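RETRY 2/3 - previous attempt timed out on the joint model. Re-submitting the same 831-residue input unchanged.
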Amino acid sequence: MNTIINFFFAAVRSGTPLLFGTTGEILTQKSGSLNLGVEGLMYMGAFAGFFVAYKTGNLLLALLGAFLFGVLGALVYAFLTVTLQANQNVTGLALTIFGTGVAQMLGFWMIQSNDGLKPIVNDSMMRQISDSGIPYLRDIPVIGKMFFSYNVLVYLALIIAVLVWFYLNKTRAGLNVCAVGENPAAADASGLAINRIKYVNIMIGGGICGLGGAYISLINGIGNWDNNCVSGQGWISVALVIFAAWNPAKAILGSLLFGAFTALQIRAADFAAEFSFLSFMTKIPSAVYQMLPFVITAVILIISSIRQKKEGNQPAACGINYYREER
Amino acid sequence: MQKEAIRLTGITKTFGSVVANRNVHLEVRRGEILALLGENGSGKTTLMNMLSGIYRPDSGSIEINGVPVVIQSPEDSKRLGIGMIHQHFKLVEVMSAADNILLGSNQEKKILSASRFEKVKAFCEEIGMEVDPKKKIYDMAVSEKQTVEIIKVLYQGADILILDEPTAVLTPQETERLFDILRKMREKGAAIIIITHKLNEVMAVSDRVTILRKGESVATVETAKTTIKELTELMVGHAVSLSIDRPDNDHTGTLLNVHHLSVCDEHGVERLKDVSFDLNSGEILGVAGVAGSGQKELCEAIAGLLPIHKGAILFKKENIEGKSPREIIKIGIGMSFIPEDRLGMGLAASLSITDNMILKNYHRSKGPLVNRKKAAKQAQSVVERYQVSTPSIHTAVRKLSGGNVQKVLLGREIDAAPSVLITAYAVRGLDIHSSYMIYDEINKQKQNGVGVLFVGEDLDVMLELCDRVLVLCHGEITGIVDAKTTTKETLGLLMTGAEGEAKA
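RETRY 2/3 succeeded.
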């Protein structure tokens, strides 16, 4: 039983940065922009979040920093694709390379100025990012460990996902966002301010991705800076958007599942020890575990293309720039 | 209420070196339907886009309700009470009718509630129109979508309505219903501008007609005091003959036997049921029917794009079942198919006219290289023969106006010298001049012994042009009639599924 609870716990912890990235990207794509720069945005957020935490020891400021750096990266993307009408795919890929480069360069500088040693956040910061959970509730057997014993960022990710779901599905502003992403010409004819809606949602989406980066550098890295920390989780987030069918509520389940794959790799030995019939799990090379999320994404893509439902698809105008006077 | 709703004075708009509108004058009064008439490329849509805020005029003035205004954006236009029903609907497919109608209306509550469906329903009842507020747009037929568009602009407070070719995709019955709605709105004091190519519709619904020719407003006449002939002459600029020839058929022999044909669409729904007919050499066989009665499937089955479910199609006694579209083209069935979405099938929109010629012919030349010279020659001849107005043969097809796109497509198909030619809605969206040119061209093919399957929507034209008319209803043939002796009413009855006694 403990093995399974620990596994679930690890799955939630590994899934959370993906939930940030996926929620941010859903918001971006819903407004009609395919931003492939999530990996870069997460790197930027990872650096900014870590740096502020390292210098100030204040988690709130660190999160703010990560969010703002994400917004900044997304602003570059929005300016290029919305105002200058640059190709979205190319811009997104460039943003990935740019964000990774910026974070690694600044990270390298941070290591250098720390006499070549890995920078580590101070003890007070460590306490703030520990899995302290919710007082009293965390002491409930089983449920307490499974649901109420996480660090504060896990809950933040959940709240943001639910808020974004509410925003997109239950508010007039969200309806406008969806209209822009589905058919900007229709939205334009309805008198909506297309560019403003796109800018706002791309930037907020980027900020949320940035928070995911901060989670990676602070929580996954246990307060130690690693220049390669994000390592593909931005890309998995993009894949998760498809898995979640552009629905932030489903993204919660999706990120838990994908987090489970990561956790499986770490906890394989536990499973093998607890259940003898699972002893083969330790013999599977770790590369197979790392491959799993991508295999599942490919399977999901196949299923969703067979399904041919109108809802739960990529917004029709996602990836296409809108220019009013074009015929 | 004869107050002026719109007055345009001296409007000029240029795109680069092309003058789209020059010194246009136009006025619409309250309680009036004004038809805007003009050939393809005469600047009708450009003019209306200046009212809806898509373009801005270079010079001239716009007055709305007697007040000079500057319209900078669709938002401005909306605020002035102008609503435009675009030729291509501007609706969000995955959203419900209600959400589309409420989109962009800023008096709504910030949080969505289920009461919005009731609200839309109540509004529809108030203006006497009917739509299911919860129905998604992708589930709707074109006429329903159009209704949603109209309700939307009315909901947002428009009392000046602009409709850009609203009847192009409607059946005669749906058109009649639309006109009833427009007349009702006219009574309520709305000002309405309708763009259409169909002159009988202009006569039926409008009070006055303003005619544009080559971007200039040449005349405004009262509908009651004019004739179709006069309107045509004003539009074209010289006298024209309005009758379509029907040369006698001096060929014999059957080209195509369609034998108990059944066809299913990609979802497995049977779209054609037990369809049998012959197409003879030198004959134009019209195919009439309400939109979606199986016309598209019939064309696609003959062209080899849809598999045959039951039955057979014989071309000169040879079964074409299982042949690929290319093999079918090779044996001489040319298909010129113009779907609702003009650039969807048949032409590659971002390629030039020349490259589109190559698309159909490249496999005929020898060797691995493309013969661009030959294609350019072909493109040049199509442009000249059909008077396609284009800057050059290297212009992307996407940049041509709708009518010119159709000319390029039809020209290419006829150039391939097929023995069976399939045309679907060949003149949709074409002005009268271009339409007659295409009828002439089809007649020329007929005289050469080509069998033509002419899928059309204008029954008057079909009765004049075709030898026989086949009527489809829900995928079944309800009658094959002799065009010389049949009336429009008979066709109308057959189209709605009444039993056909007049089988020829």
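The first strand of chain B starts at residue 4 and ends at 15. Closing ticket.
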